[in-house]
Amino acid sequence: MCLVALLLVLLPRQNRILRFAFGLVAGFGLLYAFGCGSGGTVGGGGGGGGPVPTSVAITVSATKVPAGTSPSVTLSASVTSTKAVTGTITFWEKGNNGALTPPLTIVAGSASSQVALPLVGTHQIYAQYSGDSQNQGSQSSTINVVATGTEYISVQAANGPVSRYSTIWVTVQ
What is the CATH number of domain 57-146? Predict the structure, then answer.
């Protein structure tokens, strides 16, 4: 670059075509050096820090496990990707502040855990995949898991000074 600038200064004034050609070369050289050309290394910005992680698909399922007093289900999630999958899966219940399981290590693209649900009824459960260097973290859609069993409800009715309590037993199958 310095050589081209020196030739521009030292060339005789009468050789305008040669000065113009050297000026063009110097201009394109500057554009290339400061990133406006293709492939400049000084201030060129360039690419990111490696490959972009791949999107994944998560499938969640639940099966009832016969249990004594508490409703118990086996939750399973599989992660599908075009690349090898590592990382963890954590199961959550919608509206619940805490996770249903600790982070579970993925083995052969899936993870599962047996979970005792505290209440009889419908639970909205989803899986969250942590992601890894090759795959993006993701969350599954929710599935409705019905925990069967028997629960009771206390009902209080009052009519003036008279108050009555009653217990109603509800069985979900």
Answer: 2.60.40.10
What are phi and psi for residue 22, nearest 5 degrees? -65, -35
pTM: 0.59
Note the pLDDT of residue 41: 44
pLDDT digits (tens, 9 = 90+) for 52-88: 677 778 888 887 766 555 668 889 999 999 999 999 9
β-partners of residue 146 are 122
Report the alpha-carbon distance of residue 106 to residue 87 in Å, rounded: 6
Provide the residue ranges of all domains of the chain, joining segments of one domain with +. Answer: 1-46, 57-146
Q: Is 116:72 a contact under the CB 8 Å cutoff?
A: yes
| Six token digits for residue 104 | 């579970």
Residue 16: count other Cβ atoms within 10 Å of its Cβ: 10
DSSP letter for each residue of 121-140: EEEEEEEEE---SSB--EEP
